[in-house]
Amino acid sequence: MHLLLTGACAALLLFAALPARQPAADVTRALDAARVRAETGDPVAQFSLGAYLYYGSTQTTDAVEWIRKAAQQGFPPAEHQFGQLHEFGFGVPHDQRVALEWYRKAADHGSAPAQRAVGEFYLKGRGVAPDAAEAARWFRRAADRDDLRAQFQLGQLYFDGNGVPRDYPAAYLWFTIAAGQTPLEDNRQGLIELRNIAAARMAPAAVKAAARRVAAWRPSADR
Q1: Is residue 83 helix, strand or coil?
Q2: What single DSSP character describes residue 75?
Q3: End-to-end CA distance of the chain
Q4: Distance CA 5, CA 84 (A)
Q5: What percent of the chain has pLDDT over 90?
Q6: How far is the C-alpha of 173 from the C-alpha of 166, rounded, in Å?
Q7: pTM of this prediction?
Q8: Distance between CA atoms of 26 and 89, rounded to whole angstroms?
């Protein structure tokens, strides 16, 4: 039922140190401590508590309310997850425009997954008019901050010349970077195949130059 795992990855900040088979009493104490901090207005505690309740209990209403409180304080992971809740209609009304509003807030606060989500909304025309050029701009922000899916999407746009001029060296760059960090072997091989197709359409000197760009690339901390 609760499928939004991406938004929760950074959420369980107050519970990450608990062993997998922690006694129920210790979990309860950790939850109680988190609730005390959340009630004082700590957005990290609010989001952590909300995410824990959302993924680890049936208290969906309480979970959504804590996530909402953290999001309203401008905590980027909470803003991103609140956007996801509205995108899929889990515990809140399904509303693409509201989802995009929250994704934008998280993106403006530096969330790379949210920046990529905004790009996807523009690419697919969800809650906004389709705009591949605007999608590319958002994918670039997320890709620069090492978001794997944004790197693939940006490489595809350059490969197709969709929203940006067709640029095989740029496609080569982003497909290679994405391939280097994907955890799934099938996906890695697919990205390498796309990289090789781009390389086949480039002069040998251009391939060498693109490989140097890959070697020199580092993620950016800029928003």
Answers
A1: helix
A2: -
A3: 32
A4: 10
A5: 82
A6: 13
A7: 0.86
A8: 33
